[in-house]
Design goal:
By secondary structure, the protein is of the alpha+beta class. It is built from seven helices and twelve strands. It has a nine-stranded mixed β-sheet with strand order 11-10-9-8-4-7-6-5-12. The N and C termini lie far apart (42 Å). The mean pLDDT is 97.
Length: 286
């Protein structure tokens, strides 16, 4: 990489003067995304941001507004939106192969390591397992069912208050209701391994993905048999697709823009509120 295309955190505003650079990919801790995205937009470059896009929906909307004002795209690292087996299940659901969708289950978790890492720091992560691994179940529920939830309930379990301090969730179970009457039951955790499963049930068929969101290979089956779509390197496909979106205006099958991310952030806000209050929280995502 030419030296003139290398920047640090202090100098990256200067990319505005460099025509070689089209976009900047934010892969820093969650709490830094908002301000860095605003800087990138101000520099006139497209923004690619890891998920969750921000700490809350308010920050996320500010990022969307800043990119719209600057006339640049805001894309989010939803790599599963380009994964072949995932897209096949979505295609089957749209084709009616599963009939009326009744239920979704999303289990996402692992036993997190280093207790000093940023993911267990409330100031940098904005939360705990929900902000890191739980967002896969949140987003997955939406693209697997094909609807946005209209209510959420949630419960938190904490067995290790030393490792998971105040504001850093260890395990959260959360439930959604959808306009069609379908429901979802999901779990996000930092203390259980072997949890990477999606299950979708309809009145005419079903789909199971296990692993469902890890780096792979993704494996899945439906009532019709094993999913045999090719194994891909997720980040490679994602960046190829992002390039097409930025340079050629391609429209992905499942959105990967800032508005998609704000919907997830509104759900995260609602889950934390449901945990805090113990009440069902109504959702309006549009």
């Amino acid at each position: 990489m030419p030296a003139k295309n290398c920047y640090n955190y202090q100098t990256f505003d200067e990319v505005k003067n460099n025509p070689d650079i089209d976009a900047i990919y934010i892969t820093t801790p969650n709490a830094l995304h908002h301000d860095q995205a605003l800087r990138i937009a101000k520099a006139g470059k497209h923004v690619i941001c890891e998920k969750p896009m921000a700490l809350n929906a308010k920050q996320g909307q500010e990022m969307v507004d800043a990119c719209n004002k600057a006339g640049v795209k805001l894309l989010v690292g939803y790599r599963m939106h380009f994964e072949p087996k995932t897209l096949e299940v979505i295609r089957m659901r749209k084709a009616g192969d599963f009939g009326k969708i009744r239920f979704f289950q999303g289990l996402c978790g692992f036993n997190i390591g280093d207790p000093k890492q940023w993911r267990l720091n409330k100031e940098l992560a904005g939360g705990g397992s929900l902000m890191d691994i739980g967002i896969y179940a949140i987003n997955g529920a939406r693209y697997m069912v094909g609807e946005d939830p209209i209510w959420v309930t949630a419960q938190e379990t904490k067995t290790d208050p030393i490792r998971f301090k105040e504001g850093v969730d260890e395990t959260i179970q959360f439930q959604f209701g959808f306009p069609s009457g379908a429901v979802a039951s999901c779990l996000s955790t930092y203390t259980m391994n072997n949890l990477d499963k999606f299950f979708l049930d309809g009145d005419r068929g079903w789909a199971e993905m296990l692993p469902s969101t890890g780096y792979g290979p993704i494996k899945g089956r439906t009532h019709k048999g094993e999913l045999t779509q090719p194994v891909t390197t997720h980040q490679t496909v994602q960046m190829d697709e992002f390039s097409e979106i930025i340079l050629n205006g391609k429209q992905p099958i499942v959105p990967v823009d800032g508005n998609e991310a704000v919907r997830d952030l509104k759900i995260i806000d609602a889950i934390y509120l449901a945990v805090k209050t113990g009440k069902k929280v109504e959702l309006k995502l549009v």
